[in-house]
Amino acid sequence: MTITLTAFERSPDRGLGLARDTRVRWALEEVGQPYEVRLVSFKAMKEPAHLALHPFGQIPTYEEGELALFETGAIVFHLAQRHPGLLPKDDHARARAITWMFAALNTVEPPILDLVNVKIVEGDKPWAKDRLPLVQERIRNRLNQLAARLGDAEWLDGAFSAGDLMMVSVLLRLRPSGMLDEFPSLAAYVARGEARPAYQRAFAAQWAINAPEPQAS
Ligand SMILES: N[C@@H](CCC(=O)N[C@@H](CS)C(=O)NCC(=O)O)C(=O)O
Q1: Residue closest by Cα to atom 2 of ligand 1
Q2: For residues 28 and 3, is the Cβ–Cβ distance under 8 A?
């Protein structure tokens, strides 16, 4: 059955791969499932046809026959349950890998998203400058805790899992700020994720759409 994702017609990150379709593409590549992509404009994302798939008018969405999903956590979890490669067989190890998926989305991603909010979305507000250090401090706390748990391990809990895929995807969003480099072990962890052939294929696929146009000289 054909799998179809939606993605930005033109990602605001100009090909950095930070839009959330990349993590779903990565999961699909890890489990070896082919997929198609339907590109949507910001306008189309807020129109009824897309809202029927995604109640919040966002990307990505996932369609597979009669099944339509939104939320990258749910989509990656669906893929990880259906195909080998992203979740361990052992019950406890599997539950821990799922825990890391939730931790990435629920505990680590929110303060990172706040950084984008305070710098860009709320950047012109009078209080934005005062709020920035607070947001950065929250991120540093989380990253210190995460780095302590990772230690010198390759992945968060044994073999690479959907938990790592989600955590690396979330941490990547910090790269433009330079904050990831303050945590060398996490920067190396992210680099290991990016080095995976499945990630490389996912990145290349979004780059083919989002790479900046060459400047006319
Ligand atoms: N929690 C959602 C977040 C989805 C999301 O924020 N998507 C962004 C692109 S990465 C989007 O569509 N932004 C445009 C908008 O919200 O209008 C998920 O993980 O799928």
Answers
A1: 71
A2: yes
Q: At what angle do helices 72-82 and 91-102 cross, to 10 degrees?
A: 160
Q: How far is the CA of 203 from the centre of ligand 1 (A)?
A: 18
CB 41 within 8 A of CB 89: no
Give 64's strand partners: 3, 67
Name the pTM for this structure. Answer: 0.97
- The enclosing H or E element of 5 equals strand 3-8
pLDDT digits (tens, 9 = 90+) for 19-42: 999 999 999 999 999 999 999 999
Q: What would the pLDDT profile of 50-64 be if each residue is shown by its tens digit?
A: 999 999 999 999 999
Which residue's alpha carbon is at the smallest distance from atom 5 of ligand 1?
58
Q: Which residue has the tokens 């994720």?
A: 193
- Residue closest via CA to ligand 1's atom 15 equals 58
Residues with CB under 6 A from ligand 1: 19-20, 57-59, 71-72
Beta bridge partners of 37: 5
Q: Residue 53: exposed, middle, or buried by beta-carbon count in 10 A (0-12, 13-18, 19+)? A: buried
Ligand 1, atom 16, lies closest to the CA of: 58
Span from the CA of 16 to the centroid of ligand 1 (angstroms): 16
